Amino acid sequence: MVSVHQLDLASADAAITKEFVQRWSGRYQVKQREFDVFGRIGPVVVNRGYYNRRDLLEVVRWKSPRSTTYVDRNSDSDIEDVTRMALAAPQRLRHRVLSLLNGVGVPIASALLTVCEPSVFTVIDYRAIETLRAHGELGRRSSYTRYLEVCSALADRVETDLRTLDRALWQWSKEKGKSFPPTVH
Question: Do 121 and 113 contact (CB within 8 A), yes or no?
Answer without folding.
Answer: yes
